[in-house]
Amino acid sequence: MRIAALYDVHGNLPALEAVLAEVEREEVDAIVLGGDCIHGPQPEETLRRLRALGERALWIRGNTDRLIAGDDASDELHTWVAAQIGDDEVAFLDSLPLTQRLEVDGLGDTLFCHATPRNDEEIVTPLTSDDRLNEILQGVKASTVVVGHTHMQEDRTIGGIRWVNAGSVGLPYEDDIKAFWALLGPDVELRRTPFDAEAAAGAFEAVGREDAVRFAENFRTAPSRREAAEYFEEIAAERGER
């Protein structure tokens, strides 16, 4: 199989449409949607577009999907997103599996999850030590693990397991204003696709909530990959993950 891995779309429809147009030019057998696709400024439109992919789309539940569907949906955009998509689609997000497992050409047995195989919000960044990542992967029976969550692409091998972060389609922290995703099989291609960044900024601003509007600047000045990694590592240390 050849797979397009799209993670962390975050309701950014202009970025999603650009990536899907590029995916259609590739011969892929499936599109893995790796979680946190809906939490953002255009949740209803994004969900409708992804649902239209039908059986080609293999979904995974991310941490924001869990929060949107949970009783604690209160902060940031969770309650707003839930109201936009309606109860039936909230239930759909809540029902999604935590992992997908596929045999990918050239990569072998490949496990797809949102953050790590054991947790949907555990933090791994390019600054995470090999020793720490090796601990996270203990007991995993797969040749390749594909994740997202921290919005930074990565490709390294630890203890015989290839660890791939597909990056974020809709809210990247990559020193570049592009939509980031991965094409898998027979090797790993970390892709970056241009999109209408001003349209994305306008979508975040149109929500009219401060917790959405603040992300608009990410599409005018690219967030620093190094600063994002350092920030996430600090959070991981505060949680006791380091």
**Helical proportion, percent range:** 25-40%
Count of alpha/pi helices: 9
Please list the strands of the largest sheet in the order they lie side by side. 3-2-1-9-10
Low-confidence stretches: none
Structural class: alpha/beta
Provide the gyration radius in Å.
17 Å
Q: Quote the average pLDDT.
A: 95
* CATH-derived architecture: 4-Layer Sandwich
The CATH superfamily title:
Metallo-dependent phosphatases
CATH topology description: Purple Acid Phosphatase, chain A, domain 2
Strand content: 15-25%
What can be said about the biggest beta sheet?
5 strands, mixed
| Euclidean distance between termini CA atoms | 36 Å
What would you call the shape? globular
Order of helices and strands: EHEHEHHHEEHEEEEEHHH
Provide the domain count.
Answer: 1
CATH class: Alpha Beta
Q: Give the number of DSSP strands.
A: 10
Sum up the structure in keywords.
single chain, 242 residues, alpha/beta, Purple Acid Phosphatase, chain A, domain 2, 5-stranded mixed beta sheet, 9 helices, globular
